[in-house]
Every structure is written in structure tokens, then in C-alpha cells.
């Protein structure tokens, strides 16, 4: 059972939302206690009592930790430290969704659900190679293609590289283009992985699919020319409207040619049970 350590309590005077504080506390406690993938975590009621917060706060914190791949929740069994996934050799061109959709003649609109500066928890700090509690920009967007929900993305960037980004309107503009033109931050390489997952209720509601529907989860870490990590994101693509393509060349030491993400249309019918609700 996790126990709130000294100094590991919700700060009622802090402007930081309770759910984000709870996220940080849980990640720190997982690390401090050396919990391993598959270890069971306390249930919602126990966390409410331990940290003296409402069930709504606990559920929001756990939902975001699940989005970030820190925990996994199994219906009827509980909440567990997430299992690491086996890496596969997928290479994706370093373009954003905005550019990728525009290149195919489509229009991508973003509903910005969260855009604020928050302290980095230990998971994000490790990803971005910064100290825990360093200010980062948290950007959560629900992306629409031709006005249909397609992907939910959760992005973290070091705030010192993009000061003022939290005041930008990212509804109809490319984050990467803005980073380059306004902040001089140019992404030069990155690593992306894709895995198949099932949508929990919160994610299903956002993407307008049934709970348990197939989701393609894309995780990405990008660096600049100075080899600084500048962007970490996880994107949850509707499985009935997305696929990934990679062009391969059978040559010694060859790298895959530009792959791309495609929004599938009416020519491909989703399997039964995956139709949007």
C-alpha cells in the first residue's frame, strides 16, 4: 500500500490543481518504493483517504497517468504499474499531424483542452532530461479531421524553450511551425513507437468511440540540433480511422523512406463494435 510520506501531501495553498499534485505524488511514490511493472496500486477509495482528496481528483490523476503510460487499469482487477512494451523498428518522418494532414489536402482542427505551465513530474522530467518540478508546458488537444474526432494528444515541452506558448491559440496552426518561427526551436530527430491499446471510458468519450474500442497509441520524443529533448508526446489515434504506413528498402544499412499517417475514409469499413457512437 502506498503511504503519503513526509512532505508528500496535497498543498492546499498551491495554485496547482489537486489532480496534478496527486499525479506527482504517485509517480514519486512508485519510484521511492521501487515498485515494478505489474505491482498493484491502491484503489480509488484508499487513495482518497491517503491523500485526503475527492474521488474526482483521484480519477483525473489516474486517467492522465494512464494516458502517459505510467499505470494501467484493468477492469475488475485494479490499477497496476504499467508493463514496458517491446520496442519495434518503426521509423516515422519528423512532421507534425498538422503538416501531415495538410499535405494530403485535408484540414486539421484542434480543440485545446489544456494549455498551461506545470511542474514536471519525475516521468516527464526523465523524458526531457530536466529536474523534477522544472516548469513545462502541458498541451492537451483533441484533433479533428474534416470535423470528426481523430486523435487525442498530450504534449510536454520545457517552458524555458517556449516562453509564452501557453498564451498562443493553437486551434488552427502547427505547433512545430510556431516553435520554429517564434522560438527558433527546430526538431532534427526523434524516436516514435506505436502500440495497440483499448480505449478506456474517458478516452472513448473524447474520441467518440465505444469503451474498449481499438486505439493506436503513438509515443514520441524529439530533440533539437543540440541534442536537447524538446518535445515529449503521446497520441491516441482512433483505430477505425487511422493507419501507419512505412516504405521499406531492402539494402544494407538503409533507412526507411518517409512514412505517413493516414485518416481512412469510407472506402474502409471499421470492424463491428468499433463504429463511432
What does the secondary structure layout of this molecule look like, with pairings?
Elements: H1 18-32, E1 40-41, H2 44-51, H3 55-67, E2 71-74, E3 78-81, H4 97-103, E4 108-119, H5 122-128, E5 135-145, E6 148-158, H6 175-183, E7 187-198, H7 201-207, E8 214-224, E9 229-238, E10 242-247, E11 257-263
Helix pairs in contact: 1-3, 2-3
The SSE string, one letter per element, is: HEHHEEHEHEEHEHEEEE
Tell me the helix content: 10-25%
Please tell me what the overall shape is.
globular
By DSSP (H or I, 4+ residues per run), the number of helices equals 7
Strand content: 25-35%
Major β-sheet profile: 6 strands, antiparallel
Q: Say how many strands there are.
A: 11
- Radius of gyration computed on alpha carbons: 19 Å
Spatial ordering of strands, largest sheet? 4-5-6-9-8-7
Q: Averaging pLDDT over every residue, what do you get?
A: 80
State the distance separating the first and last CA atoms. 38 Å
Quaternary state of the chains: single chain
**What are the segments in which pLDDT stays under 50 over at least 5 consecutive residues?**
1-7, 86-94, 265-277
Judged by helices, strands and strand pairing, the structural class is alpha+beta
Structure description:
By secondary structure, the protein is an alpha+beta fold. 24% of the residues lie in helices and 32% in strands. It contains seven helices and eleven strands. The chain has helices spanning 18-32, 44-51, 55-67, 97-103, 122-128, 175-183, 201-207; strands spanning 40-41, 71-74, 78-81, 108-119, 135-145, 148-158, 187-198, 214-224, 229-238, 242-247, 257-263. The strands form three sheets. The chain has a six-stranded antiparallel beta sheet. Helix 1 (18-32) packs across helix 3 and helix 2 packs across helix 3. It is globular and about 50 Å long. The model is unreliable at 1-7, 86-94 and 265-277 (pLDDT under 50).
